[in-house]
Structures are given as C-alpha cells and as structure tokens.
Amino acid sequence: MPRLLMTLVLMAVLPLMAQAQQVLIPSPPQINGSSYVLMDPASGRILMESNSDERLPPASLTKMMTAYIVERELDENRLSMDEMVPISVKAWKTGGSRMFVQEGSRVSVEDLLKGVIIQSGNDASVALAEHVAGSEGAFADVMNQQAQLLGMKNTRFETATGLPHENQYSTAYDLALLAAAIINDYPENYPLYAEKHFTYNNIRQPNRNSLLWRDPSVDGLKTGHTEEAGYCLVASAQRDDTRLIAVVMGTDSSEARAREVQKMLNYGFRYYETARLFDSGESLLESRVWGGKQDQMNLGLASDMVLTIPRGARDSLESVVEVDSVIKAPVSAGDELGTVTISFDGEVLAKRPLVAVEPVPEGGLFKRLLDAIKLFFHNLFN
C-alpha cells in the first residue's frame, strides 16, 4: 500500500525549526584490557568496544548471575530475605574470597546475598546455589538457562563462584547485558551493589569496586580476579538521565581495571546522552480511517523510543513519518500502519513501526457506504 511521507514535529520533543549543528566527538580512548565494552542499557547502543564477543574466563563476575537468580527467586516469592540457609561442608570449605560462614550454621538469604555482592564470598555463593537448586551443578544449569533468556549467547557457567573451570566463559558484551538485567529487573535490590562495606561474623570487608569511593555517580556492580582471567570489572554509573555500563576484562591490576573503566565512563558521559523521545502508546498523530465508527484514529509506537545521541544534538534531531495512504476499518490496536524514522545530520538513528494506539471497529452499514463514496472521490482527486 502506498504511504504518505510527512515530517512529524512534536513541540515537547523536537523544535519547529531545528537547526542542524556540528557535534564533534573524538575517537574513544585507548583501553588496556583483553576486551571491553561501554553500553547505554536504555537504548542498547554500544559506544565503544574491543573484542567484546571474545570468550574469556569471567572470574567473580560470575557472581552477578548467582545474585540475579537469587533476586529472581525473591521476586517470585520462592525465597524470602529472612529465610535461613544451612551452610554445608562444601560451602564452608570453598576457597578464595570468603564471607567466613561456619559449617553447620544457618545464615539468612539477605546476609548471604550481601556476602556475594559486597564481599564476593565464594562460600556464600555455594550456600545460596545449594539452597536454591540442591547442588552447585544443578544451579549452574539454571544459570545457563537464564543466560540464554537474557541473550548471553557466548556464555557458559559451571560454578556459582567463578573459580577457574575449563568450560566456563563469558564475554564483555554478555556481562553488560547481565548488568542491565540486574539494574532493570530488580531495582529494589540494586542498592546492595553500591554498599561499600559489609560486616559478618565480626569481620568487616570492603567492596572491591574502588570506583564506589572515587566517583559518586558509580553505584555498582562487580569485580573479578583470577590468575587466568586477570583483573576484571563491571561498573555502572548514572549522571542526570543517562546511565552507562562499562565492562573491562583482563587488565593487569586492580588499579588498572578501575582506571580503564573510569576512562570509558568519562568518555561516554562527556560525549553522549540518553534521549527519551516517545512513550509507548503515546499518540504521535491522527490519521483518517475509512468505514469505522469514528473518522480519526491515533497512531503511535508499540514501545518506548529511547536513543543514545551525541550530547547537545537533541534539538537537531529530525523525525519523519510515513503513513499508509488509505486506512480502512476494522483496525486492531498494534496494527502496523506506517513508520517513524529519527535522523541526525543525515544519519538514521532509528526506524520503528507506527501502530494503531487503539482499535477502530467497523461502522454501521450506512457509515461504511457513505465512507466508500467519500473515499472514491478522495482517490479520484488525490
């Protein structure tokens, strides 16, 4: 069906006479690491990356998935924060970073979750895995199923801790997806990732994410280190209405991972911003509908349109819509009847279907006949 081309201008979003401006963005900084990625989780746009799909050992970044699954269990009321978890010999004996739980004791889910997130406790991770799935191996199966649901195509887990295993791997990009899911899916638990210390059994341990002390906009997420993986960090920060997630893997020191992530975050916030242009279900324009109970219908988007744009470029965005030249009832909500294209300086940033916001049922017989006559003359003279 032919479509009508027009420029859509919403005063709340785009100016009537947008003046294009030159936005100068330098090349991203050089990052010392095996792989890295900087993502805007609201839009999914990658602002900088290198080897972001390379499979590498994730070390304790694995614990983000352990925590995510526990948070899902809490959300679905299969766990409660005050539920007491028995500590097995295996959990107690697990080496590496520890929360220092005691074999035979019982520890609340809340304390164990803090032990995983803040103290990076391997013992806490195993205890939660056994409590949720019966064994760490069964819990790893759940981790892998969840990874697939999140689109983590290059990830495989074998442990709840991230301790070395030859078949365990992930990527910077996949871990950025996981970080976004943690932030967006269970926001009530996300403040745990910003806590700087946690004391259990009279042992006070700091969060190993040193950016929590250096940059007030940083509010998570997780560090990792093994001999094989090097020093890794997934961090997120929010400044004004823009949130970014930075992942670096395979640096040579804890100071290096913090420094490299800070460079990525500073670059992203300086030169880009998140722009929420249209909400799902918002009426962007009215269009004529023939043979319906009403003559006009609202068109909009099926999902929010959120873009990552050069900072300062919002007033120079161009929005163009194409609408089906003839729309006939009945129309169902969600029917695709055109497109919306957002461009900046000649570059297309997004193209989304334009859909019916609400249904339009057929009119009565007389209304349909009258509209058929009107449409005949409309087509004749247009």
Gap between N and C termini: 15 Å
Biggest sheet architecture: 6 strands, antiparallel
Mean pLDDT: 92
Order of neighbouring strands in the sheet with most strands: 1-15-16-17-13-12
Overall shape: it is elongated
Total beta strand runs: 17
Structural class: alpha+beta
The number of helical runs is: 9
Radius of gyration from CA coordinates: 26 Å
Strand content: 25-35%
Task: State the share of residues found in helices, binned by percent.
Answer: 25-40%
Ranges with pLDDT <50 over ≥5 residues?
Answer: 7-18
| Element-level helix/strand string | EEEHEHEHHHHEEHEEEHEEEEEEEH
Blueprint (SSEs and pairs):
Layout: E1 3-7, E2 35-40, E3 45-50, H1 63-75, E4 84-86, H2 89-93, E5 106-108, H3 109-117, H4 122-133, H5 136-149, H6 172-185, E6 197-200, E7 203-206, H7 211-214, E8 218-226, E9 230-239, E10 242-251, H8 254-271, E11 272-278, E12 285-288, E13 296-300, E14 305-310, E15 318-324, E16 336-344, E17 347-356, H9 365-381
Brief digest:
The protein has helices at residues 63-75, 89-93, 109-117, 122-133, 136-149, 172-185, 211-214, 254-271, 365-381; strands at 3-7, 35-40, 45-50, 84-86, 106-108, 197-200, 203-206, 218-226, 230-239, 242-251, 272-278, 285-288, 296-300, 305-310, 318-324, 336-344, 347-356. It has 382 residues and is of the alpha+beta class. It is elongated.
Explain what the structure shows.
With 382 residues, the chain is an alpha+beta fold. It has nine helices and 17 strands. The chain has helices spanning 63-75, 89-93, 109-117, 122-133, 136-149, 172-185, 211-214, 254-271, 365-381, and strands at 3-7, 35-40, 45-50, 84-86, 106-108, 197-200, 203-206, 218-226, 230-239, 242-251, 272-278, 285-288, 296-300, 305-310, 318-324, 336-344, 347-356. The chain has a six-stranded antiparallel beta sheet with strand order 1-15-16-17-13-12, with no helix packed on it. A hairpin with a 7-residue loop joins strand 12 (285-288) and strand 13 (296-300). Helix 1 crosses helix 4 (122-133). The longest helix is centred in the last third of the chain and has 18 residues, at 254-271. Mean pLDDT is 92; it is low at 7-18.
